[in-house]
Amino acid sequence: xxxRQACKAFGLSETCYRYVVGKRDEKxxxxxxxxxRLTDNHRTWGFGLCFLYLRNVxxxxxxxxxxxxxxxxxxxxxxxxxRRRLVRxxxxxxxxPTALNxxxxxxxxxxxxxxxxxxxxxxxxxxxxxxxxxxxxxFSLPSERVIRSLNQIIGWRGKPVAIRCDNGPEYLSxxxxxxxxxxxxxxxYIQPGKxxxxxxxxxFNRTVRYEWLSLYHWENLDCLASTTNAADDN
Length: 234
Fold this sequence. Notes:
The protein has helices at residues 3-10, 14-17, 22-41, 47-57, 64-73, 143-157, 169-172, 174-183, 199-233, and strands spanning 103-112, 118-126, 131-138, 162-165, 186-189. By secondary structure, the protein is an alpha/beta fold. Residues 227-234 have low confidence and may be disordered. Helix content is 50%, strand content 15%. A hairpin with a 4-residue loop joins strand 2 (118-126) and strand 3 (131-138). It has nine helices and five strands; from the N terminus they run αααααβββαβααβα. It has a five-stranded mixed β-sheet with strand order 3-2-1-4-5, with helices on both faces. The protein folds into two domains: 21-74; 103-230, Ribonuclease H-like superfamily/Ribonuclease H (Nucleotidyltransferase, domain 5). Residues 89-234 form the Integrase catalytic domain.
């Protein structure tokens, strides 16, 4: 039986039967060498960047299916990026003051007006009895405003030994650090990413947000509803 008849009997294409694998292996080897070279020199490159480099920069006309098949056979798609390990510091216990003006806490809050404009609130409390010493509200509160608010509180309350705060840019500025050194007040910065170390003022912020500001919003809505009903009656 001839090859043509045998291929017809088994439903096999003569092209597949007569295909020589040698040339294909040479091309695949060249593709594999390029992929290994690219992924070794450029560890952040995936298949897309490697294929675009071979097609557009080097001018190879290899089909993307062939390149991707070899890319997977080489298991280059299983590369795992090493995770950047964070340096975990030992937790610092929260110091409980035993008298007034030992430690104050200050922090910023953000809220939004009915017209969409953002406002900031600068809150200061005494950690001993959780007393609210001051709340400064404005659209912008730079370091100069923070210093002015603290000076006003010190004028009637007295000077604290230390003030606990986070690592915000207003507290790290040269103006407020110079003010603290001039007045003899210690700035106690909490650990980065640890708001629980400033738990007293964070709890106060929650009260301000969910009990005071929310009540203010509901009162505004009630006034708006009563005004609308009066206009409808007229």
